[in-house]
Automatic annotation (TrEMBL):
Keywords: Copper, Metal-binding, Oxidoreductase, Signal, Zinc
Family: Belongs to the Cu-Zn superoxide dismutase family.
A Pfam family this chain is assigned to: Sod_Cu
Protein name: Superoxide dismutase [Cu-Zn]
Enzyme's top EC category: oxidoreductase
Amino acid sequence: MNLHVFIIALLIPFTTQQRTRATTTTSTELPTGGIEAKCSGNWCTTPRPCTGFGCPPTTTEKAYPIPPTPLINRALVAFNVGNDISGIYGYLELAQDTQYAPVRINGTLHGLLPSKRLGFHIHQSGDIREGCSSTGNHFNFGPLVNHGIPGNMVRHVGDLGNIQTNSYGIATISMSDSMISLNGERSVVGRTFVIHEKEDDAGRGVDQESRVSGNSGMRMACGIVGILGTVQAPY
């Protein structure tokens, strides 16, 4: 047999076998969010074709959609942390019916100064390692603005005005606010509610501190907003 013909005869089965092996793929299902393909006995678990595993760029892969992130519809604030004044305790429950609905705030706080109006704000951070003083400024999203109260055209997102205590130092809170949210950029989850020692002047004072904090004074008690319930989007 001619030597050239003999070499070609040997190469044809080899190249045919390699081509068949490289183009044979089978898909297998994974849990939600996963992609997997079997290529010549090797497993590929990336969103790209199985390059480097003997598979061509046209490798068939089966993708599964990642489920939407659950939306928070209920949250809880426990007040049991203070700087210098102790004995303040209670709970607030926050509820939001839909992603863009106002947030309802309901609860009762005990041990406050009797018969007073006290500043009531949400602060930027959930850091209470140094008590309420390490929670940062009033929570705000967007451009820098002056302090205000609900109903003002200009206010921080976390400016919630005042709460009223009775002669026993108890405050029953029932309010709603459309600037705060439990989801998205205005979410208060992980931030801190703070009760102050003085009445919030709504940013109408003549000094600079009025435009920053409403001259609400010392931070008496605080509580971090924690998740209480979630639902699947949309809701």
